[in-house]
Amino acid sequence: MNIRHFIIAIAAVCILPACDTLSQLPVQVNLPAAENVIPSQAETASGLKEALVNGVSKGTITLSKPGSFFQNVARKILLPQEVREIEGKIRNNAVLNAAIGGQLDKAVKAMNDGAENAMGKAMPIFKDAIMNMSFSDAMGILRGGNGAATQYLKNTTSTALQQAFKPVIQQALNDVKITEYWNPIIREINKPLNKTLLGIKQDINPDLNAYVTEKATIALFQEIETQENAIRSNPVERTTALLKKVFNYADNQKK
What we know:
The protein is mainly alpha-helical. It has one domain. Helices cover 73% and strands 0% of the residues. It has 11 helices and no strands. It has helices spanning 3-23, 41-63, 81-92, 94-119, 123-131, 135-144, 148-175, 178-189, 192-198, 208-233, 241-253.
């Protein structure tokens, strides 16, 4: 064996085991990170709708629980401003307090019970608006950050929601017999002698239906925003593969 053949043989002995070792190593494939996978238009729209439906569902369930308004300082529906302005005078006057004070307490409880009763009936109204969301709406919401989805619902459904919500609230108020408490209060306050005692000139006749509807709707939007922001900020809240894909991608776009 000449020197040239000897060198080739030595090289083969050294290289072949190395090749065998390399063949056992896992193949590295450069796949895109999950958060870099761009969701399709259909996935983006579906993901946003799923998130909103989840948020609305959780929000309505939370607010429909007994005591969710009356026992919560932040949500409790108080008497209308016109009545609150003279409530102190009523409480401090023995005659008026005896005639009206107890009814005021019952009215406050009934209004809050009515709002709670109406919450479960709000779901179809919001769901219909969510299902009609366009792709451009979905992309704007996805990139809009905290509260963007809730703001979209406010902008697109507030008027229609309140129009549809009022009869539901009215029925809820009827169910707790609010008129038994409210109408006597207004009639008593509007008596000429009592108006003189309270120092008011105009009759008080606030639309209690509209008042409770507005307060209940505000509380519902606040709760929906809380749920929306939880999905945006907490990956644990992204409970399906679609939510993970859509919101992980949105997170990555902020980096």
